[in-house]
């Protein structure tokens, strides 16, 4: 019985990890200089097929940067020859390149709210072989900077559950099995 409960919990965790969902990254007062990028998801932290990207953000402050310069980039740093670029005025070199449909203004309070569907899905296996996901300012002009508040949603992927979370599911299954026998 114990082995059955543990196996069931591990199987449920594996199925949940493989199911298609969306992952949202939220940020508040994120200031980025021109071509400054931060890793938001490292290699091996996502699983699934990335089929789209959504943004819902407000430009709070700007020096020569537009709201739609907020950029998702999938690649190993340094920037260049990546798998995906969504957003940003400057083309940074990637297999797939998309622009946000709005947010073409540098005024404080400008909103960029857009969804992009990818022509070719990008697979994430939850292993170290995956490329990291970066969030940055896709404007290459000297002295440019922007501050944004909002969120980015990666469509079709999940965060890989940590080993500790899977262990807790297993323990919960064992505890449930003991209660049924008592």
Provide an overview of this structure.
The protein is α+β, with helices and mostly antiparallel strands. It has a single domain, classed as Jelly Rolls (Sandwich). The chain has two helices and nine strands. A five-stranded mixed sheet has the order 2-8-4-5-6, with no helix packed on it. β4 and β5 form a beta hairpin. The longest helix has 19 residues. It is globular, with a radius of gyration of 20 Å.
Find the structural class using helix and strand composition. alpha+beta
**Biggest sheet, in brief?**
5 strands, mixed
Rg, Cα atoms, Å? 20 Å
Order of helices and strands: HEEEEEEEEEH
Number of helices: 2
Distance between the ends: 13 Å
By CATH, the architecture is named Sandwich
Instruction: Give the CA-based shape.
Output: globular
Strands of the widest sheet, in order across it, are 2-8-4-5-6
Structurally, the number of domains stands at 1
CATH class: Mainly Beta
- What is the CATH T-level topology? Jelly Rolls
Mean pLDDT: 86
> How many DSSP E strands?
9
What's the helical proportion of residues?
A: 10-25%
Work out the strand percent: over 45%
Low-confidence stretches: 1-18, 165-169
């Amino acid at each position: 019985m114990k082995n059955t409960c543990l196996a069931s919990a591990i199987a449920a965790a594996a199925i949940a990890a493989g199911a298609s969902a969306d992952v949202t990254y939220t940020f508040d007062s994120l200031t980025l200089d021109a071509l400054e990028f931060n890793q938001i998801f490292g290699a091996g932290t996502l699983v699934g097929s990335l089929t789209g990207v959504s943004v819902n953000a407000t430009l709070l402050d700007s020096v020569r940067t537009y709201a739609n310069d907020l950029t998702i980039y999938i690649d190993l740093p340094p920037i260049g020859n990546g798998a995906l670029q969504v957003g940003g005025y400057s083309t940074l070199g990637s297999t797939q390149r998309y622009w946000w449909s709005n947010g073409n203004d540098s005024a404080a309070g400008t909103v960029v709210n857009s969804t992009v569907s990818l022509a070719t899905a990008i697979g994430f296996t939850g292993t170290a072989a995956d490329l990291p996901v970066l969030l940055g300012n896709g404007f290459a002009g000297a002295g440019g900077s922007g501050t944004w508040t909002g969120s980015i949603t990666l469509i079709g992927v999940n965060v890989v559950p940590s080993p500790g979370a899977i262990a807790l599911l297993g323990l919960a299954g064992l505890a449930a099995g003991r209660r049924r026998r008592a």
